[in-house]
Design brief:
The complex is a heterodimer. In chain A, 30% of the residues lie in helices and 22% in strands. By secondary structure, chain A is of the alpha+beta class. Among the domains of chain B are: 81-213; 490-603, 2-Layer Sandwich (Dna Ligase, domain 1). In chain B, strand 7 and strand 8 form a beta hairpin. Classes of the chains: A alpha+beta, B alpha+beta. The interface between A and B is large, with 91 and 69 residues.
Amino acid sequence: MSESTKAAASDVKVDPVLVAIIGRALKAITEEMSVSMERTTRSPILCEARDYVTGLYDAEGRMLEQTENLPILSFSLAPVCKHIAQKFKGNIFPGDVFFHNDVFSLGNQNNDVAAFKPIFVGDQLVAWSATKGHQADIGGNVRGGYNPDATEIWQEALRIPAVKVVERGAVRKDVWDLIFANIRLDIVEADMQAEIGSCTVGERRLQALIGKYGLEVFEAHKLALFDAAKKLMQAEIRAIPKGSYMGEAWAYYDGKNVGSKYKIKVTITVDDEHIRFDYTGTDKQTNAFVNGTYTSSASATVLTFLQMVNPDIPHNEGMLEPIDIVIPEGTILNAAFPAATTYGNHLCPNNADAIIRALAPVIPERVGAGWNQLLCSLSTGTDTTKAEPYVDIMFMGLKGGSGAMPTCDGYDHIGMIDASGGVLDQDYEMFEQQTPHLLLEHELLCDSAGAGKYRGGLGVRTRYRVGGTGTQLVTFGDGDVEPAFGLQGGREGTLNKIELHRPDGSTVVPRTKDIVKDVPAGTEYLQIAGGGGGWGDPRERPAAKVCDEVRNGVISRGAALELYGVALDERLEIDEDATARLRGKRS
Amino acid sequence: MAFKLGIDVGGTFTDLFLWSSDGRIETHKTLSTPADPSIGLVDGLRALAERVGMEHGAFLRSISAIVHGTTVTTNATLTRNGATTGLFTTEGVRDALEMRRGIREAQYDNRYQNVTPLVPRALRLPVKGRLDRDGTELTALDLDDVRRGVETMKQAGVGAVAVCFMNSFANPAHERAAAELVRAAMPDAYVSASTEVLPTVRFYNRVSTTVMNAYVGPILKGYLDRLTKRLAEVGFGGVLLIMQSSGGVALPTVTMGRPAATLLSGPAGAPAAAAAYTKDIGNGDCVVVDMGGTSFDASLVRGGEAAMRNEGDIERLRIALPMLEITTIGAGGGSIAWIDEGGLLRMGPQSAGAMPGPACYGRGGEKPCVTDANVVLGYLDPHNFAGGRLTLDVEAAKRAITERVAKPLGLSLQQAAAGMYRVVNANMAHGVREVTVRRGIDPRELPLVVAGGAGPLHACMIAEELEIENIVVPPTASVLCATGMVLSDLRHDFARSYMRRLSRLDFKELNALLAELEAEAEAQLHAEGVAPTQRRLEPAFDLRYLKQYHEVTVPVARADIAKGELSATTSAFHAEHNRLYGYDLGKEGTDIELITVRLKAVGTTDKPVLPRVPPAEGEIKRALSGARRAFVPEDNDFELTPIYQASMLMAGDHIPGPALIERVDTTIVVTRSFSATIDALGSARLTRNLTRKV
């Protein structure tokens, strides 16, 4: 923004009603950008699962609003936008587009490639639109990314520090070709075009909005919007008792050293209207790819905390202002250059556990039990009948249950906390259209939820028969050692598992970060995503509800009896006397 | 004399629109009778008979057609009062219905709960048998699973059964065999197989739609049986037609084949009426908004026809059938004002409803609502609200706004009411953007047709917000859906999955497929007695760029397909893709894939001619009934504003803003930037003045 606009903006009388109107309009624009991505991308990771985010930023890169299908991606867009605005200062023109994925200039993950488009009114830069999605391939040693053998970034991915790929509306073909010559799948090029299209939708709409109210009015009301979000966040922080609270969690297996585990330690200091998350004491970075970047870890912190506060706070720069995050460089959450970091996004569940453990005793009414950790797989190969390569992340298989809350059950089959239900299962028939595999089972898993007065969310069991040729399976995740924890007497959830039953009768159990090459057609893939932790004594759960769940096959008769103290007869009717005895016994 | 009647049964009111062959129209609003809506409907008929001065029986015998829009299926879904429903589905995927692809709409709210599925898990029964993605059988169907399941369902008192198997869109054989068995074994149950409802790819969409179809089937059947019986009893001998969510109408027997097509059909009549009242403006495009007590519906008319989409949601449950592109938001006369924790003024979506209603209703409501703001702003006459049926308590409205909006925000009473008015107008403008800008359409170029009891109070400021130049408030604005029903055509939609690259299209096969759909459509229209000259078949393709997974629906010319010619179709696709998504790949020459072939079958009905109002004579003073102080948004101040009685206005009358035009059931607020002209059909046309405000 020019100095004259700034000065003019400060003369504008802020109209509280218009602040609300502009806030709503910004949200609508990012939602439209999101629809554009969903409807035009090719990779199932984007169009089916929605593993992308969209956002608007002001001329300096401050967050105006976002649509966060996968929040772990989203809180690094503003830092990168600021970086680009600085780096290209004086060299930014209408019709430009910039790409970025570099984790050592504030990106969160190599595969999460962002497009940024500057938005002009006349010849004045007024804002940016940005879209970032998990691309199906980004070069490096392993198809689809996730190279557990990597020790440095060059083995993982093509680095794209902020580069201009379109200048004044004309594609810089040399730069463009350099990028896509280093990426395996042609759909990635098409999906980056879709990202640019989404940015253009944001550009068209924001220009119209600013055109309607005038730039000075827009600028003044933008600041008021930041201020409103800041006040909302401060009010939430004031409701937390002042003090310093510590939480710890463990991340298991770094992809190289069997039996390895790493501590994540957070100290949360609440000081009136300000909250600070300090990760001093967290273990050193690994010599493998299980390492976070500052922005992936800070995103994890923010999204976890946002689930403990008023969910209606607008997501803009003001919301983040009262939040301070300190992550010492060289730790597993903020690895130093040139470490491998592809796994970093997936340290979010562990990071979240540390935060939940720290705050559960302090604000028990707002904090739920532990979530099922992510365990994921990615298959690549050739769909022989179509004679085409494919990449698929097994989204439907990875989505376990969330932790129970003090007032309600956890959410069944929601998936990792980093997405919080924003990422979707592939549609079953689309999965079979997009891959050579055949889905055999995808159902809620009986007894997977942590028992409690409020039970955890249920996990799922998934089986598919591998088809095609040249199949390679990559796994990444956790949750095979420590299940989701319960709170206030609630029981823990269940563990994750992936197994490959090969046609010759042998079974392969990949590690949680692994590459399995040459998986033969006919292999049966089996995955269990565990349930979330329970909250409160299971014997306080209404017996009728337990009975209903037994009839629906999500709690077994045995578990009803042993964990919930509900006795059911052969016809699945409640045995009132036996149940009273079981439930009375405990007091 | 012969009559045509439109009846729109809503949750609160039943609206009737009667057209007589002598060219006159009558409208009537009566309270709905939710326990059995056909009672309220018959009451309405009685009132109309009196209105036209005819004996009841003679009146009913003179009605050639009743077009009826019902919310029984929508309400049964919203209140979970549908049939006890069972589902037969492929072994291994019975939870797709409940898991809804694992979405949690409120990402940061850990207390947000999933929707209870329409079929409990215990009644979602697995069946062995499997087809691959091309429809080739991998495992034979095990009918014993179905037989055993039938017993389970009988014991559970199941009244409706859905059948949905994996990949059945590519081969319906398994589903047909299973459905046949169930129909024979459970003759009283309503049975719905997914390929009969929606033979297209995407399992979740299909299973959800089929289950919903089954769930509301017995409800609709019971209602239509009662209604036809009751109408026969009172001597009605004409044709009964049912409104569908596609904006078309169908015979009750046809509707029973796809009851889910009546879900969300409530506002579906409005676009046809809007098109009729704006026939002479531009190229037949307009935006229609309908604002009632609790909600605001925005829809779109393009080229004289309602804009459509191929899927939507009801209470977060997917229904993938062609339906009007309608956005509904919680904005109505009863929407409540509140201040959020950041100090921002919000309006709705909570509504005070009819009980207690806005504070000014004097029924104990303390929360400030949109209607309260309209009273304070001087837009509503407290002594003549809803045709004089209710006297509004101005002091209560002032009190509510002062305590809950003005004081917390540090505003005066008037400023607070004006703020409420602006915020709700902005919310509604966003609703309009959803159906326009989101589809790549610029609302500024379109006339805004305003309906509903509360709509005309807000019309100018919604238009202002969207920079729309022309507003049309039809004479039947408060019963616009009922009006539109009489003006709607018979309509049926057919769709078939057909996945091919355009560059490799086998036109012989494609033409054969289209011919098959056309034969089906012709048979349907023939059964409904539509003469061949009255039939119209319109094919469309769902297209996408190679390897994309979502489609854009593009109309195609039948002659082009017959000739094997596609260039017009592909150019239309590129243009639509760019408008919607910010880019196209026309220059790149990327191949395009055809996914679904659609066919819309229309049987045009004889439309009544809307009556004209006589041209203006003498001075407009005849309509001037007084003046009161009312808020002028452009000045941000109050001004003594003239009041006109709509009943005294004639074609050509011109009223500059600011002005208030009062009708029996609503008031049109003309702000300073607009002036009103009465057109030949009696609509108030509000046009933005040439000198724009800065």
